[in-house]
Amino acid sequence: MIKLNKAEYLDKLHACWIGKNIGGTIGAPFEGRRELMDVQGFTTPEGEVLPNDDLDLQLVWLTALEQYGVKNFSANVLAEYWLERIAPNWNEYGICKSNLRLGLLPPMSGEVDNDKWKTSNGAWIRSEVWAGVAPAAPDVAIKYAVMDAMVDHGLNEGTYAEIFTAAMQSAAYVLSDIRELIEIGLKKIPEDCMITRTIRLVMDCYDRGVDYREARERVVEFNKPLGWFQAPGNLGFVAIGLLYGEGDFKKSMLYAVNCGDDTDCTAATIGATLGIIGGTKAIPEDWKSFVGDRIATISINGIYSWTAPKTCSELTQRVANLVLPVMRENNIWFEFTEDGNAALTNSVDENNNLTAKNFLDYSPYSYDVNVYRPFNIKVEFDDTPRIKPLDSRKVKLTFSVGHYIYEQRKLRMKLILPEGWSSGSYERTVALDYPQHMHGIYGISSTEFTVTAGENINCVNYVYAEITDYTTIPYPIMVPIVFIG
Fold it and tell me: Is residue 342 part of a domain?
């Protein structure tokens, strides 16, 4: 069971957002600089906090969680809010929105035609909201972080990056040792990925007494193949700030800013993380008063900006309101108390199949159709959904039910194909078996088939799997299977 002192949690969460604003305001004027710098503090007018998409997107995610509710929340919900409420179209943001408009749901929305940017910085910069609704429960924070990241980064380094920051920041609500927090984050991502290897490089430099400037040069050299504005190199700069700053708020942030590259992101993440660790007392008073409590936005479509919190104090309270619902939905025993008794949990109840590990085991060319009750249906391609005339693709559909079933159920499946397209099996019966135990997904089955395109194909081509389950749903379920010409 997790027990958190509520006043202490609220103070840490408030400090998280203040630190996020400070870092974004200090770092933004130097974004994109490739040389080693010597920034000493703010270069903007006092009292003016700079807007930053790092925070803006989290305000939209907060609204989505509030409006849809925890039980109905999914990556597809975030995809809907991407299209409706997020204004920027640069890099991975624009690519994922284009893919979503074609009908490619997450994680395919972050994979297709996104080789350059799916390893970039767009996801790990927005992990604080997930840590905030799941304090001291890293796996729960990760679950939502993966839903978030895979919309515009698929299942790649960009998503590993948000797993790392979400786990680290969730644990920071009860742990304060920087090294321990970094290790918690690293344990959640592949050992051989570029993010792990880059951060381990920084840790080795720090342990060996290498100057931070030299550590920075080694990070740059190691990440040359990926280029700039990429997650591994910039998280390397975050690690430099956290380790070489040794807990000092100003030193840590300035070390990261002076490394260059995506400076608003690196500084804002350090500010937020140190805010969580130390609370408002850890933030120097002169820097705290310089930015104040106000939130400025720039990336939210105008008519929706009114739903966003206007201050860090309001944001703190709205995030805090979601902690108990999130913990209940994920079967975590949690209690706010007036004393200091706290614990850390690293596990999600096995009834939840949406942990980071399970997500990362997915094919990147897959997506969930979860708008029908009681089914979740996963569509999985053997390769990219792009197809040429007369090409073939194998498709796998996996059906799962989130409640216990007491007898085998049979689903009738019929494929509806574009004119001139073919499949080896238009109709078949799928048996949904019931298990011998009451853990995990209660009913699950899958079926595979091959689809062959005709001589003429369109830009977007829909194959529909019409599923009929006479036991529980009195109408056919239509599952879209999207092929891009």
Answer: no
